[in-house]
């Protein structure tokens, strides 16, 4: 008996079980089984079981190709800049601006994390800056509690401030592509909201950790930032390419071109310019790029489409429709918290698409659809801070810290995550609702 003859309940159960199995494998990552293999295997099984069709596969590829290529290109740019000391120069420059004040150092580290997350995505900010922050705390001979405060700040800020630009987070790109949100339109809606998220994050973190942050530090022990620039020529080239890349992002909305075209072009020029650098092997960097994210995105979203085809996103869509009846504030806060809670238990990558499909199914007005799309992004960006499994970047971040003998237990992470994320998320969503009312779109 084929799947066509099975009752609807069996199909729904199969789709849910397959999704859970794939999700567990992605999070746990058994030895030798990467996230790409797990998601791809789930997609093939969904196709064989008839939960999805070839047309669904084509639709998924159309949704995620721009996002994943942009993400890979941004990581490549980050890797090049990291190799030549760009981020270490930036981190040391910020630290010297603190001028022996622990409180100022806390603020500058937070601001640097926000800027890096804005232009190089949250993964780059968390995974590149955190080791640099850790090394600086060692040089400054800070206590373990002070070190933990600065490390948690860099990791927390990387995610909570990854909403301002389309390219600041992989889920941003997926959502922007799905709802056809142009780069400039997205920026107008989200940059003011991101400033609120940054302010709320710094306040929440300072309230929680201020007892452990030293009032005075001796920044004279830190090396000169310029001494960490390994290749001045590539460093200068980066300052030419990055503004041009930002200009390309703005042009993308008017030309109706995918942002990945500009990001891939920028990384190509940067790699070409760095070809003679003794610190960079272009071929090695390309091999080390997170290509498995491309496979993971396509595979995971095909599995998600299996849930949609069985009507599960329609149920969520009904809840979103009910929230829209309550008005702008209810819609923004409700949608954002649903996205956050789902992200915290099943990862933000599948969450953002599940919610996007549900919002689309709710058949709302254009203004309400876009409001919920932005709220979904905020919830999917901030929600992963509630649990260690909320995003793959967090799991990798914890692994990077453990390699440096800094062990953060899941219980401690969740305690801090709940205490800090809930007020920051609420404040950010309220700001979105207010700002949407001000600009009227």
Q: Brief overview, please?
A:
This protein has 441 residues and is an all-alpha fold. The protein is 77% helix and 0% strand.
Outline the secondary-structure elements.
Layout: H1 8-28, H2 35-48, H3 54-83, H4 86-97, H5 102-139, H6 144-160, H7 170-179, H8 183-209, H9 232-255, H10 259-273, H11 282-288, H12 292-309, H13 312-325, H14 328-346, H15 348-361, H16 366-382, H17 392-403, H18 410-439
GO molecular function: arsenite transmembrane transporter activity
InterPro entries: Arsenical_pump_ArsB
Family: Belongs to the ArsB family.
Search tags:
single chain, 441 residues, mainly alpha, 18 helices, 0% strand, globular, disordered N terminus, transmembrane helix, Arsenical_pump_ArsB, arsenite transmembrane transporter activity, transmembrane, membrane
Distance between the termini: 51 Å
**DSSP strand content:** under 5%
| Overall 3D form | globular
In terms of quaternary structure, what is this?
single chain
Radius of gyration: 22 Å
Name the helix and strand elements from N-terminus to C-terminus, one letter apiece: HHHHHHHHHHHHHHHHHH
Main beta sheet: none
Structure class:
mainly alpha
Uncertain runs are 1-5
Counted by DSSP, the helix tally is: 18
Q: How many individual β-strands?
A: 0
Helix content: over 70%
């Amino acid at each position: 008996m084929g799947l066509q003859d099975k009752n609807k309940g069996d199909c729904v159960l199969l789709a849910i079980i397959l999704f859970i199995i794939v999700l567990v494998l992605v999070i746990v990552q058994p030895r030798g089984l990467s996230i790409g293999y797990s998601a791809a295997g789930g997609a093939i099984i969904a196709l064989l079981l008839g939960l999805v069709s070839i047309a669904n596969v084509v639709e998924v590829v159309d949704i995620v190709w721009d996002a994943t290529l942009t993400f890979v290109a941004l990581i490549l740019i980050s890797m090049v800049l990291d190799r030549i000391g760009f981020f270490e120069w930036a981190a040391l420059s910020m630290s010297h601006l603190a001028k022996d004040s622990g409180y100022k150092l806390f603020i500058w580290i937070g601001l640097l994390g926000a800027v890096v997350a804005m232009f190089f995505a949250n993964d780059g900010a968390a995974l590149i800056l955190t080791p640099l922050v850790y090394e600086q705390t060692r040089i400054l001979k800070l206590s373990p509690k002070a070190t933990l405060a600065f490390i948690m700040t860099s990791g927390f800020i990387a995610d909570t401030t990854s909403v301002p630009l389309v390219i600041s987070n992989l889920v941003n790109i997926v959502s922007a592509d799905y709802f056809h949100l142009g780069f400039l339109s997205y920026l107008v809606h989200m940059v003011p909201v991101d400033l609120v998220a940054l302010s709320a994050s710094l306040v929440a973190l300072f309230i929680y950790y201020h007892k452990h942050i030293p009032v005075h530090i001796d920044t004279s022990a830190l090396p000169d930032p310029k001494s960490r620039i390994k290749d001045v020529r590539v460093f200068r080239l980066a300052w030419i390419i990055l503004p041009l890349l930002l200009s390309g992002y703005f042009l993308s909305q008017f030309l109706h071109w995918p942002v990945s075209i500009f990001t891939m072009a920028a990384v190509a020029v940067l790699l070409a310019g760095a070809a003679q650098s003794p610190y960079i092997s272009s071929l090695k960097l390309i091999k080390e790029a997170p290509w498995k994210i491309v496979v993971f995105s396509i595979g995971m979203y095909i599995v998600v489409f299996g849930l949609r085809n069985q009507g599960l996103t329609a149920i969520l869509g009904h809840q979103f429709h009910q929230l829209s009846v309550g008005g702008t504030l209810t819609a923004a806060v409700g949608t954002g918290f649903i996205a956050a809670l789902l992200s915290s238990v099943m990862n933000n990558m599948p969450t953002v698409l599940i919610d996007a499909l549900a919002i689309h199914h709710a058949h709302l007005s254009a203004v309400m659809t876009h409001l919920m799309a932005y709220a979904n992004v905020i919830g999917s960006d901030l929600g992963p801070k509630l649990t260690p499994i909320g995003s793959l970047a967090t799991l990798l971040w914890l692994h990077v810290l453990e390699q440096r003998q800094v062990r953060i237990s899941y219980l401690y992470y969740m305690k801090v995550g709940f205490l800090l994320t809930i007020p920051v998320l609420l404040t950010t969503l309220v700001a979105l609702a207010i700002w949407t009312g001000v600009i009227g779109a």
